[in-house]
Specification:
Blueprint lengths: L8 E2 L10 E9 L5 E8 L5 E6 L8 E5 L23 H6 L2 E6 L13 H22 L7 E7 L1 H12 E2 L4 E5 L9 H13 L4 H10 L13 H13 L23 H5 L3 H7 L18 E10 L5 E4 L11 E4 L8 E10 L2 E6 L5 H6 L5 E5 L1 H6 L36 H9 L10 E7 L8 H14 L7 E6 L10 H4 L6 H17 L9 E3 L2 E3 L4 H4 L5 E6 L4 E4 L5 E8 L6 E8 L8 E3 L7 E8 L5 E12 L10 E12 L1
Parallel strand pairs: 1-8, 5-6, 5-7, 7-9, 9-16, 16-17, 21-27
Antiparallel strand pairs: 2-3, 3-4, 4-6, 10-11, 10-15, 11-14, 12-13, 12-15, 13-14, 18-19, 20-22, 22-25, 23-24, 23-26, 26-27
Helix pairs in contact: 2-3, 2-11, 4-6
Length: 653
């Protein structure tokens, strides 16, 4: 896929595009904490950077450098994704003795006319190197600050790409919630397929969610119909976490709209083949997907080329047209097919919002009066695109379900693999495992967007590339009960926790590894049927996250009458060397509010708690306990507080 080897950047090399840095802001600031702010760019480019320096008394000779491909500003967050610390927590960074670095990636992400390595790591590398020059001036002494690059999701691709294509620029790397280099768009298309199949019968998802709740059966398959079971088995073997369906009612296609316009441009004949050739789901006249295919004609009322692009229409279809295409059937743009991100009806106005990276020349030709058609043929066809995108190596084991015993694909394969396009756009190159410096990768157990097994896949890449001694420079953390993004809704807060504290501790532990030789604590895990399995106790699991064993009346499920007290007991334990339990909070009714603080008089490696609660009405309730551990056992700091959560079922008669 790649035409040429990407530019390799070293500590002493000079990137010809970014050879002339300048600063245009240098000032003291007090918000949110006292720091010196320096901002600038590189002459002749759109590239911008910002540095945030702590007072000299706090500075310990290092910097944390955050990256995300769709960052449009070099100032601290917010990025267009809820990553908390990844948006640039200056309080944490300065408390860690570090200054903070961020760029805008040159403002060229997804620009097909430029080298993808520019946004992937070249701008970041140039800024990181220049930050050392500025740091010497700020602190009035010659020194080489240690540098640590970190980024999540698309930023994880950037971080790994930087680790593999530079040497001596950064000393360590923390890619978090990472994907493999064939993840796009398969993880998203598989979810779309599962959502459509399982939403045909309203109770199907509820049965799945209940089965994997604590106190549930653990096996929903006897309750599912054949097509439902097949769709659920397929996405489970691709790695979608089994416990992740609790929020099924609010699920959509995730980040699919970000790449929906890319596939028709790269593989334009796919939809036609899907509906007309054997081996594709759409070709089968008995397949239920045929009942969902619809087209809807309308007329353009007005066009707004802002962000997002908005096109007002004479009417909207009754079906959900998100991820469908707006096909222009008359006018100067006739023949254009544009991916739809959202469909809106607001105050009597019907309009669509298009994905943000479509061809501006085509968009400029659309005018009022043009006839258009909303067509979901592409959206439906792409739901099973992952079946026709099997990677060349069986090390991508999530796709092996689509191979015969001989290894031969069960379905027709496309001439082009889309995954590498997305990977190279974000990382600058394919991921080979040949990174420089030290890398501490952070993955989360309920990642619904970059399934957890992909971190294990990259570990395999590193082991294959570096041999037996690979662990000298690579470590992997898994935390359970966290999403790709951090929880926001009450329902999410009752099921998952933020991994922000784990990410903070990862940066601090990476610095200790590089600067003092203390290797981070490992997490023991295994992968079964592409699902992450973590040991049940802190002693077996290791890592840095507290492990909670919670019981109601002594078990995972309690049955009581209305008003009858339920006795809860919990054991919260930290893995050896991970720190101490510093806080715990009860949410007896699973509302996500955690109003019941549990008193922990003295932070300890192991804490036992008891509580009682009664329920006012019949039904199934879930009591929740959330706990935090902190490496130094400090209950007075907001930083490095690593969370976990546990739930227990109470059935009230």
């Amino acid at each position: 896929m790649q035409a040429q080897k990407p530019l390799f950047v070293t500590a002493d090399s000079i990137d010809p595009l970014f050879a002339e840095p300048f600063t245009d802001v240098d000032e003291q600031r007090s918000d949110p904490v006292p720091h010196r702010y320096v901002s600038g760019g590189f002459k002749g480019t759109k590239a911008r950077f910002s540095f945030y320096f702590p007072p000299e008394a706090q500075y310990q000779g290092r910097f944390f450098h955050n990256t995300y491909p769709m960052a449009t500003s070099s100032d601290v967050g917010p990025f267009p994704i809820a990553f908390e610390v990844a948006m640039g927590d200056l309080g944490f960074t300065l408390d860690s003795g570090a200054y903070y670095v961020q760029t805008n990636n040159g403002g060229v992400f997804r620009d097909p006319t430029v080298d993808p390595a520019i946004a992937a790591y070249r701008v970041n590398a140039a800024a990181a190197k220049y930050s050392r020059i500025v740091a010497a001036e700020v602190y009035r002494r010659q020194h080489r600050p240690f540098g640590y690059l970190f980024g999540g999701s698309g930023g994880a691709y950037q971080t790994v790409g930087a680790a593999e294509n530079t040497d001596g620029v950064w000393d360590g790397f923390v890619p978090f919630v990472p994907g493999c280099d064939h993840a796009i768009p398969s993880m998203m298309s598989a979810r779309m397929h599962a959502l459509r199949e399982l939403r045909r019968r309203p109770e199907a998802f509820a049965l799945i969610a209940d089965a994997y709740e604590l106190g549930g059966s653990g096996d929903p398959y006897p309750l599912l119909k054949d097509a439902e079971a097949a769709a659920f088995r397929e996405i489970s073997l691709l790695g979608h976490p089994l416990k992740g369906w609790y929020n099924h009612a609010a699920m959509d296609s995730g980040y699919f709209s970000n790449i929906a316009g890319m596939i028709p441009a790269i593989d334009p004949g796919y939809a036609e083949d899907f509906w007309n050739k054997p081996g594709y789901l759409g070709w089968d006249p008995d397949a239920l997907i045929n009942q969902s295919r619809v087209q809807f004609d309308a007329t353009v009322i007005s066009v707004d080329l802002g962000t997002p692009v908005r096109i007002d229409l004479s009417a909207l279809p009754a079906f959900d047209a998100a991820n469908a295409h707006l096909v222009v059937t008359s006018g100067a743009a006739s023949g254009a097919s544009l991916a739809i991100a959202h469909v809106r009806a607001n105050d009597g106005q019907d309009f669509v919002e298009l994905v943000s990276h479509l061809n501006p020349e085509v968009l400029a030709k659309i005018a009022p009066g043009d006839a258009v058609r909303i067509d979901n043929s592409w959206a439906l066809a792409l739901e099973t695109y992952h079946r026709h995108q099997i990677p060349p190596s069986m090390t991508y084991y999530a796709w092996n379900q689509f191979r015969a015993a001989t290894g031969r694909p069960l379905y027709p394969q496309r001439d082009v693999l889309i995954g590498p396009f997305g990977t190279i756009n974000a990382a600058g190159s394919m991921l080979e495992g040949r990174h420089s410096g030290k890398m501490l990768m952070l993955a989360v157990g309920l990642d619904l967007d970059a399934y957890p097994w992909q971190a294990d896949w990259y570990r395999g890449q590193v082991a294959a590339a570096k041999g037996e001694g690979y662990a000298e420079n690579f470590a992997l953390w898994f935390t359970e009960n966290s999403h790709h993004e951090n929880p926001m809704t009450p329902l999410q807060r009752a099921h998952v926790v933020s991994y922000g504290g784990a990410l903070q501790q990862a940066l601090r532990d990476l610095a200790a590894w590089v600067e003092e030789g203390r290797r981070p604590l490992e997490v023991n895990y295994r992968i079964e049927d592409t699902q992450l399995v973590l040991p049940a106790t802190a002693a077996e699991r290791g890592g840095i996250q507290p492990v909670i064993q919670l019981a109601a009346n002594g078990g995972a499920r309690a049955e009581v009458g209305v008003g009858e007290l339920v006795e809860f007991s919990a054991l919260i334990a930290m893995p050896q060397g991970a720190g101490k339990v510093v806080s715990a909070e009860w949410d007896f009714e699973g509302a996500g509010d955690f109003a019941g603080w549990a008193e922990i008089a003295v932070p300890s490696e192991e804490v036992s708690l008891t509580a009682s609660h009664s329920y006012p009405a019949p039904g199934t309730w879930f009591a929740v306990l959330r706990a935090s551990g902190q490496r130094e056992g400090r209950a007075d700091t907001p930083y490095g507080r690593v969370q976990n959560i546990a739930r227990v079922r109470v059935v009230v008669r």
